[in-house]
Amino acid sequence: MFDKIAFLGLGNLGTPIAESLIEAGYELTVWNRTASKAEPLAKLGAKVVEDPMDAITEGGLVISVLADDAVLEDVFSMELIEKLGKGGIHISMSTISPETARQLSKIHDWYGSTYVGAPIFARPDAVKAKVGNIAISGKSDAREAVKPILQTFVKGIFDFGEDPGAANVVKLAGNFMIAASLEMMAEAFTMAEKNGISRQSIYEMLTQTIFAAPIFQNYGKLVAANKYEPVAFRLPLGLKDIKLTLETAERVNVPMPFADIVRNRFVSALAKGREDMDWGALALGASDDSGN
């Protein structure tokens, strides 16, 4: 249905997604606020534009992988959505508030286009390996139309129905669970370390046995080494996601005490100047508390 795609946002996730689409034969027009990040895509054949409006074609497809609610709402102005127009589809892969997704969906409806929420569970290396997973929600015809495109760079697509905010509820729940797992591993590994057991050895034993799951195996490597560079997902973005999780929970009167603990770990990490580290660096808080 779509062989040309407008692609907005070329960060750590956006770039490998765009590369995969080009490899799959799609013709991309790309935009990024930091223009230099588009250079690798230009070498692969993508058209680079200086204004996101210039990437949009009426009735076309646009994929956005933008940092947060504010950036997404700024880029997807009334004018841009109006230009996308009747028959157009916007796939938003950002981790944003479900309420922002629902509001954007309404605005798309006004102009005859469709908003599809499709946040991705994947770090950059998982995108490159095409083993990530996507939660998707929005109007059924649009969801079905875009699934073949998404399948070019992920392992699984999980459909959460018509509510355009549902996919982001799932994404926030998942990101909270990852962050809580980081804290859990940090506390356990630090307790073992203070008792004379190496972090690496307990990591290897537990992630090959009772915690043999990707989150523990992959993030556990970072926590075992207590090293959080190179950065795949910056720590301030992790704090943003936990704040959104707590806001989403509060809207429906769900207390999340563990999420409060994780939020405080992120705030503490930022207070200690760790804003340029991977979000896994929240795990350093357990070492700090233990005197290590």
TrEMBL record:
InterPro entries for the chain: 6-PGluconate_DH-like_C_sf, 6PGD_dom2, 6PGDH_NADP-bd, HIBADH-like_NADP-bd, HIBADH-related, HIBADH-related_NP60_sf, NAD(P)-bd_dom_sf
Transmembrane segments: none
Active site: K171
Lineage: Bacteria, Pseudomonadati, Bacteroidota, Cytophagia, Cytophagales
Lineage top rank: taxon: Bacteria
Gene Ontology molecular functions: NAD binding; NADP binding; oxidoreductase activity
Keyword hit for NAD: yes
Keywords: NAD, Oxidoreductase
PANTHER family: CYTOKINE-LIKE NUCLEAR FACTOR N-PAC, OXIDOREDUCTASE GLYR1-RELATED
UniProt cross-references to Pfam families, sorted A to Z: NAD_binding_11, NAD_binding_2
Residue ranges of every copy of the 6-phosphogluconate dehydrogenase NADP-binding domain listed in the record: 4-157
UniProt protein name: NAD(P)-dependent oxidoreductase
Positions of the 3-hydroxyisobutyrate dehydrogenase-like NAD-binding domain: 165-281
The UniProt record lists the keyword Protease: no
